[in-house]
Amino acid sequence: MHHHGYLWVGAKERFDQEALRRPPHPEPPPAGSKAELIQRYREVAAEFPTVDLPPLEPAHWLVKPRSLIRSTWDEAKDAAAWLGARVEEYAPRFSSEWERNFIDLALLANSVTEKLSSGADVSLGFYLERPSYLSLSVVTCSPNRSKPDIACPIR
After folding, report:
1. pTM for the full model?
2. Which of 24, 83, 84, 152 has its CA at a distance of 20 to 30 angstroms from the CA of residue 108?
3. pLDDT category of residue 19 using cuts at 50, 70 and 90
4. What is the DSSP string of 34-63?
């Protein structure tokens, strides 16, 4: 088991493009569907695997291009340290004063290490200075507990 780290920062309005953050339905629209529905399905089917937007389910990062992986770790504590360092790096830009001042990085690292060690994924999101959003994810791989059918993008 190993872990891949992902980081996305961008405009909140882009993050809100939810259709591009979820995989297309396994079945295309039935014959006779409206042309707009068929076209939208085709767009999502083509774009979801390549778009850099964070997927709604962290495990779906594994179907995205390898180039989006920020780092890979064999040890959960190393992945948790990376995640904590990113939170600390971006904290001055958090829109919430409470989050800026009260996130306990040691507690966060311990919690993330525990979750990753159990095979779970970890995903965090923070509103930054308007109108931006930060998405951080560490996804467990080989296999992923929630999506064991998705192959590892690296190994």
Report:
1. 0.92
2. 152
3. confident
4. -HHHHHHHHHHHHHTTT--SPPSSGGGGGG
